[in-house]
Design goal:
about 300 residues; alpha+beta; Alpha-lytic protease prodomain-like; GMP Synthetase, Chain A, domain 3; 9 helices; about 65% helix; about 10% strand
Length: about 300
């Protein structure tokens, strides 16, 4: 007996509205900080621009993923266009990597030869950026439980806020001490945050494209949870993978003794419910077989 269960994605107008605001606000502050970085000659501010650019694209990908989830599947793409999100995220991460190393290069150069910056103006622009990040976090927070895309965007917004805090702190220190070397040191710190974030995106994207077991999913716990329902040593040929960052799929065989076959509908429903509630797996293909088939 084989059953395929698919999760029906619900439109979330509130989530999309919050993401739209995040995209608009982050993009506006991105261009404002870029102009400010060129005006004030602040490398720290420019590093925050790069971080902001990555987050702006992340918000767009989250919004794009929700739109894709609402689109009907086609005969040629039974999972829809969800994989486009992964390709976009990978390209985004690789681009940010290049930009981060650009910051590293110029920051090290400026540490050896500090340059004058307009610290007061840089501080004002950084504070505005921090306020915008705070508004984005405030708008996204109520929708954290509605969609994993919102949670991903929220975490990116938190990271951007931390980077903005570092830039604001550097602006205050430079304003007080007149030590311009703080600017490239802060740029190195923010660039390091960017590299770590980009590495995680690359790692997760490659894992998805290779159809590996999703990160943060304990396969042993998954098997144990299923066999608590179907019985010990009943799980065979298990495969679990991500379609995209928020969509997991699974296929497996359940080998039952003859006495349990009469309960196969109940067992199948309980397993499916466990997969959905405990492991966020809404696309599952489960084939139930009899032990006697393998003995003959």
């Amino acid at each position: 007996m084989m059953v395929h269960r698919a999760h029906d994605h619900k439109n979330s107008h509130a989530s999309k509205a919050a993401l739209k605001l995040a995209i608009i606000a982050t993009t506006l502050i991105l261009f404002a900080e870029l102009a400010g970085a060129l005006w004030t000659n602040s490398l720290a501010l420019f590093s925050d621009v790069i971080h902001c650019a990555g987050d702006s694209l992340s918000f767009f990908l989250s919004y794009f993923a929700i739109l894709l989830a609402e689109r009907p599947r086609s005969d040629t793409r039974t999972f829809g266009l969800h994989r486009l999100e992964v390709f976009a995220a990978l390209i985004n991460a690789l681009t940010v990597f290049v930009m981060a190393f650009f910051i590293f290069f110029h920051a090290i150069k400026r540490i050896n030869q500090p340059q004058e910056i307009m610290s007061f103006e840089m501080l004002i622009i950084a504070i505005i950026g921090l306020i915008v990040n705070g508004v984005v976090i405030w708008k996204l927070h109520p929708h954290l439980k509605e969609d994993v895309n919102i949670k991903s965007a929220y975490l990116h917004a938190l990271g951007d806020a931390l980077a903005s805090v570092a830039v604001v702190a550097s602006g205050i220190i430079i304003l007080i001490t007149k030590q311009n070397i703080v600017d490239p040191i802060t740029a190195l710190l923010v660039a390091t945050i960017i590299v770590v974030s980009a590495y995680k995106i690359c790692r997760d994207s490659i894992q998805i494209l290779m159809e590996g077991v999703p990160y943060r999913l304990d396969q042993n716990l998954l098997i144990k949870s299923i066999e608590n329902i179907s019985g010990e040593q009943t799980v065979k040929d298990l495969h679990v993978w991500n379609i995209c960052s928020h969509l997991r799929a699974l296929s497996l065989h359940i080998t039952l003794p003859e006495r349990a076959l009469a309960r196969q509908k109940e067992i199948l429903e309980n397993i499916t419910t466990t997969l959905e509630n405990d492991f966020n797996i809404f696309h599952s293909t489960i084939q139930i077989e009899s032990e006697s088939w393998h003995k003959s």
